## 1
Amino acid sequence: MKRLRELEILDLLKKRGSIKIKDIVDLCGVSENTARRDLHSMEKQILLVRTHGGAIRVNQNSVLPDFETRLQNLSDEKERIAKCAASFIKDNDVIYIDCGTTLFFIHKFLKDKDNLIVITHSLPLIYQLSNQPRIKLVIIGGEVDKERKAAYGPIAEKNINEFHTNKAFIGSDGISLANGLSTYEMKEGLITKRAAENSKEVFLVCTSDKIENDAFVNFAPFDLIDHIITDNKITHNISSKYKERIDLVISGDD
């Protein structure tokens, strides 16, 4: 239901350019508190910008949902999660690293790894890792999305199929026990899914606000992943349910 409301809200924003709390109440048949929570959640996903009593759509005249903007959101949590993820990377590993902003911070913690092969389509990661003498960097080519700073399209999808890794570190806009992994950009989901399918071990690396939230398009089943690495803001109720299904690693836990 929440995902359907988000779609309806975004559709109305696209038509009008702005929306009021009352509009969401009338459109979706929910309370004002629920409408506010929806706007808060959507702003964190950089799908809109909240205003007094409502929201405006994200566009060139406000804030673009580009890599730099997303990188600044929850940056401290993302870096801690990335450090935790990097602890699972060992010498001689062949790994895939996805293009998410949380995964970007992994580059800070790879300097002491020997004979590491890293496969990625993330332009910021390529830049950061290109000068690391101990890392062999393999670039997935394709059409560059300038906002998301990554390569996509048929060439990228063909390239990623040619590589097999022993560990894949992937991102997702949402994950739920019922619906698996989901994304707001299908082109991202296609690359992520193929990289995960070609890996022996898959780590989903994400902030806790993505957990038990569904984005627009489901792109992979829950059992595609072996581990989830997230922050300590995850609720006890959700973490308990996830630990029954998967290896859940919380950054900062001993």
## 2
Amino acid sequence: MPPVRKATPPHVLLVSYLFPPSNRSGAQRTAAFRNALEGLGLRTTVLTSTVSGDLPDDDTRSVVRAKDARSAPSLQGVVGTDRGRRWWSRLIVPDATVLSWGPAAAKAATSILRHDRPDVVFTSSPPESVHLLGLLLSGRGVPWVADLRDGWTFEPPTLRPYLTGVDGGLERLVINRADAVTAATAPLADYLRTRGHNRHVVHLTNGFDPALLAEASDERGTLDPERFSLVYTGTGGLDGKDPRPFLRALEVALAEQPGLSEQIEVVFAGNFTEPEITSMDAAPLRGVVRTLGHVPHLRSLGLQQAADGLLLITSVQKSHVATSKIYEYLAARKPILGLADRNAAATLLAEAGPHVLAPPEDEGQVLAALRTYLDRWMVRREPFESDFDLGPYTFPQIARRLADLFVEIGALAPLNP
């Protein structure tokens, strides 16, 4: 009798422009999905770009990095954030990566299709060029789920209003051609339902990965045990966030309470613009504010867990954004000073516990919130208590909902409970 062949696990192709070792939120979302889907018994391949660098286990973990031409002098500055983009890059729909990365990515996707056909493809933006690969593979019969972490025409950058119609047409094509569409926040999902006739538009929240939290570095030695350590991890103006209203409020608070400088330290870990770094190093803040620069993701998690409190700064331009960092903050179970107002992040923090909120651009309200925050958590040292259920925001549970969506669109057979 011939030997019985073991069935091959279903194959999921995850397409994301960024992937670890990048520690940007989009890279971490895709990595967490990959790990959780494999935990459910699925087999995954990741198609990403060379812009994030590489890892030693890329080959064994089936990570394909398509070459990105942004290293060429003519393309410097056109990929990533809106700051510093060449003027002509704003004429490219959907974005400049369609030229810098798109051809190599399409070639890699075609090769994967030919040699190891996926059962379903999951494309996660931004940048929106990733969804063109979904269109390519969908046209060849592969079921497709398009994931939008940020809006496309919902609260877009005000860079090229003259191309809004072109962007909108391409967005509708993606929404209607995909077998399902997922959105990282509820407001974005509601908006996408108005943009096309796809009945599978699902809110698939961001979250945190408990396995990564367990691997976080011990950063207690990085922080001053004699002072209240308020920690911020992330970026500033590079992502439309401005720490300077908070820094100016802190200057006022230090002037009001001369002894405060001996009681508190504010630690920023991440990438910031030169003007922001200059503000952090202003004379009134020296000895209180310090910057660690860019740190690996596991170190960011360690800083969050070692902190006495956490500072969150959100963009006033994107009301729908709630990145994975917010859920990592919540998982640290520390009081959060959230500069967030009338957006998805503020709604989440208001539900999640006794956190303190203020509009990020209103320096008066930021100062009032800072006073309240320090009085509660540094002076009176109230115990921080929250019974907010974080279970639905762990990536194993979120990935299970994604796998169920794969089943719903007919890409996979029902999974074991």
